Each structure stands twice: as structure tokens, then as C-alpha cells.
Amino acid sequence: MNDEEQFARNLVYELKPSVASTLLPGLPAYIIFMCVPHADYINSDEKIQDFLTLIINAIY
Fold first, then answer.
1. Organism's domain of life (predicted)?
2. Is the CB of residue 55 less than 8 Å from the CB of residue 32?
3. Does residue 52 carry a pLDDT above 60?
């Protein structure tokens, strides 16, 4: 499993509600959001698209 898949799995599937309630509100969404500017910085449009598709598929 590559890093992106593991990242999506940890944020979407394995983050338990009891743990999420102790975090800052919206922290998982903020982490996902901050990955987009990083991928833009390294100038990888394909990586942004693949990453967001992976996150969306993990949610559904």
C-alpha cells in the first residue's frame, strides 16, 4: 500500500470518533486541505487529482 492510500485510510477509516472528539474541530479536513497547496507547490496537477479522488473514494 502506498503512502497516499495509507494516509487516506488513517484519516477516513481508522480515526475513531472518541479520538476525533479530542482533536481540534475540523483537523482531518484541514490536513487534507493542506496537502493540496503542497502538491501545487511541487507542480503536480496529476498528484492533486489522484489524491483528491482517493480521498473522495475513501469517504464513499
1. Eukaryota
2. yes
3. yes
Domain interval for residue 33: 3-59
* This model's pTM is above 0.70: no
Q: Which amino acid is at 48?
A: I
Q: Determine the residue type at 44.
A: S
In terms of Cα–Cα distance, which of 41, 52, 60 is closest to 4? 52
C-alpha 10, offset from chain centre: 8
8-46 residue pLDDT tens: 888 888 888 888 888 888 888 888 888 888 877 888 788
**Buried (b) or exposed (e) across 27-37, using 16+ Cβ within 10 A?**
eeeeebeebee
Counted domains in the chain: 1
